[in-house]
C-alpha cells in the first residue's frame, strides 16, 4: 500500500472514475477503500484502526515516523505547498522496505497498478542514493 497525501485524494477520484474501479490508499493511520459504481459515483468505506491495536496500522505508523523525520512534531504542516508534500511522499515511497522484499512502496505500487496512477498522485521514483528523510528536504 502506498502512502498518499490527503490532498491527492481528489486527484485520485478524478482519475479513477475513468480508469480504476477500486483503489486502496493510506494516510496517517487511516485506510480507505475508494470504490466507484458504474456511473462513476464514489462508494467509499473508511476503516479506522483501534488506538490500542498498533498491529492494525503498522505500515501507516512507519510512514508517519518517516513524515516526522522530515516534518518534526510541532511544526505546522500547513506551511508547506502541495508540491513540497508530494516531494516528501516521493522520497518516503522510494525508500526500500525489508518487508517488501527490499523493494520500495513505489516499485510495488507501480508493478501492481502501473505508473499512470503514480503520476496522478504526482509521485516520482527517487534513486536510493538521493533519498532525503530529514528537514533539509523541504528547505
What does this structure look like?
Strand 2 and strand 3 form a beta hairpin. The protein is of the alpha+beta class. It is 37% helix and 14% strand. It contains five helices and three strands, in the order H-E-E-E-H-H-H-H. Mean pLDDT is 77; it is low at 5-31.
- What is the structural class? alpha+beta
Radius of gyration: 15 Å
Uncertain stretches? 5-31
Number of strands: 3
Q: How far apart lie the N and C ends?
A: 28 Å
- Beta-strand content: 5-15%
Spatially, the strands of the biggest sheet line up as 1-2-3
3D shape: globular
- Helix and strand pattern: HEEEHHHH
**What is the average per-residue confidence, as pLDDT, rounded to a whole number?**
77
Please outline what is shown here.
Helices cover about 35% and strands about 15% of the residues.
Amino acid at each position: 500500500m502506498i502512502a498518499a497525501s490527503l490532498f491527492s485524494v481528489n486527484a485520485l477520484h478524478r482519475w479513477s472514475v475513468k480508469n480504476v474501479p477500486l483503489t486502496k490508499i493510506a494516510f496517517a493511520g487511516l485506510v480507505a477503500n475508494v470504490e466507484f459504481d458504474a456511473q462513476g459515483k464514489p462508494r467509499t468505506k473508511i476503516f479506522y484502526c483501534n488506538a490500542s491495536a498498533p498491529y492494525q496500522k503498522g505500515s501507516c505508523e512507519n510512514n508517519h515516523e518517516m513524515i516526522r523525520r522530515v516534518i518534526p512534531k510541532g511544526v505546522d504542516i500547513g506551511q508547506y505547498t502541495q508540491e513540497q508534500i508530494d516531494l516528501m511522499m516521493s522520497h518516503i515511497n522510494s525508500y526500500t522496505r525489508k518487508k517488501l522484499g527490499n523493494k520500495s512502496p513505489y516499485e510495488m505500487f507501480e508493478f501492481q497498478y502501473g505508473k499512470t496512477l503514480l503520476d496522478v498522485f504526482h509521485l516520482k521514483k527517487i534513486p536510493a542514493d538521493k533519498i532525503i528523510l530529514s528537514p533539509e528536504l523541504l528547505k
